[in-house]
Amino acid sequence: MESNIFEVLFPLGFIVAGITAYFAHKYDWRIAKWF
After folding, report:
1. In this prediction, what percent of the chain has a pLDDT beyond 90?
2. How far apart (Å, rounded) are the C-alpha atoms in residues 5 and 11?
């Protein structure tokens, strides 16, 4: 069960990181506002 959760979270983590990096480059000023 635990290993199954990590198998799902790891790929999702990379996808979220990729999307975040993409939007950070595209909407740099907007993201700076949120943080």
Report:
1. 20
2. 11
* pLDDT for position 12: 92
Q: State the Cα angle at 8 between 7 and 14, rounded to 5°.
A: 95
- Contact in structure between 35 and 28 (CB atoms under 8 Å): no
Please give the biggest Cα pair distance in the chain: 41
The string of DSSP codes covering 1-35 is -HHHHHHHHHHHHHHHHHHHHHHHHHSHHHHHHH-
Q: Over pLDDT 70: what percentage of the chain? A: 77
